[in-house]
């Protein structure tokens, strides 16, 4: 039986999913932030040389942008780089013109210029923001940060920790390996895989949490291309939220996180003194971080279980609009020919002349590449077929879609995601209601793949 409160949560979630977002109302609270992108000195390792990263407000990761559900976030973005940039709010069901996609939703913000982003946030959850111009370089140099939206459920947690992971590629002087930016090998294979994993900018950070408390851990994968894989010293990890959306909680021994994806865990600290987490995607485990349980609670711990909000199954729908996306390309692939800017070329000349390796439906994409036009109010089924030898982390801007996920150990788990990690040869259906007008980018979040053709947009009219 649902309690009254759960029932209310349930209906609130339902309404949020189908109602139109994004009309700014007069009584909403405004959260003001300023993000300045600039060149910042950074030392990765004492044995190495000083490096210069591109960071927001001189921090890696950039500052946490935080708001409550239904607030308005207002960010003054100042570009102090000597290249144009924009900011995208990954996972937010945004107003299209605030989505931060250069050429498609706004002009790039030129060096020395600024831009005001202002948008409501109608879903509590774990999101992030990042640069969206030449992402393969700008994100790689550090232009990203967490974006956390909270609601009443969050008041019950005793600790709330963001775990933003990045996979840097450093040279032997422990500086960003800039020589390999744009490497054809990376672009046609798995993308830029690094060799230096950080959690919140540090190598082996430790955090302290309250004894007997409930801790929410918010994992974000900001890597260019590495699929992270987390395990822990816990019996099992309880996943409560995926890409900022609630799920029916479930337990996993380990979980993968494709670039752009998020997973939130709920941890209870009874009887434990430390909890270790490690990242195991490499040849040897890259020890990641540790939680130290303080034996004396600083807080008034309420020893009750937390009522999480429920997951709302796919509503019934009629007459869906089916859009097919056939993904091809890359090394060892089957893309013989494809169109780029209207010209049909073979794979070799696409690679050599245009530096393009990937296509949707035999068309090499770019920001302004229209994939499909649909009417507002239609239910969309994106039938996505990964007909390549590589996994891809497929991200749709401005929407969360239902997908029968094969990412967890219990196969075919229905979840809501904004980024879905697809295996080679996988076919999947992304189902969503096109209720938000605008031009919504769809691309691989392995940033080198997006840069070399795996990108386009779906327009909602
Ligand atoms: Cu997080 Cu278009 O991306
Ligand atoms: Cu990809």
Overall description:
There is one protein chain. This protein has 461 residues and is mainly β. The protein folds into three domains: 15-152, Sandwich (Immunoglobulin-like); 160-293, Immunoglobulin-like (Sandwich), CATH 2.60.40.420; 313-460, Immunoglobulin-like, CATH 2.60.40.420. 8% of the residues lie in helices and 43% in strands. Residues 88, 90, 130, 132, 260, 395, 397, 441, 443, 445 line the site of CU-O-CU linkage.
- Percent range for β-strand residues: 35-45%
Number of strands: 32
Derived structural class: mainly beta
Unreliable residue runs: 1-21
The CATH superfamily of the largest domain bears the name: Cupredoxins -  blue copper proteins
Whole-number mean pLDDT? 92
The count of domains is 3
**Helical residue percent?**
under 10%
* Small molecules (ligands, ions, cofactors) in the structure: CU-O-CU linkage, copper (II) ion
Q: How much is the radius of gyration in Å?
A: 21 Å
Query: Distance between the terminal alpha carbons, to the nearest Å?
Result: 41 Å
User: How large is the count of helical segments?
Assistant: 5
Which architecture of the largest domain does the CATH hierarchy give at level 2? Sandwich
Shape by Cα distribution: globular
CATH class of the largest domain: Mainly Beta
Biggest sheet: strands, sense, closure? 6 strands, mixed
Instruction: Walk across the major sheet and give the strand order.
Output: 10-9-12-17-14-15
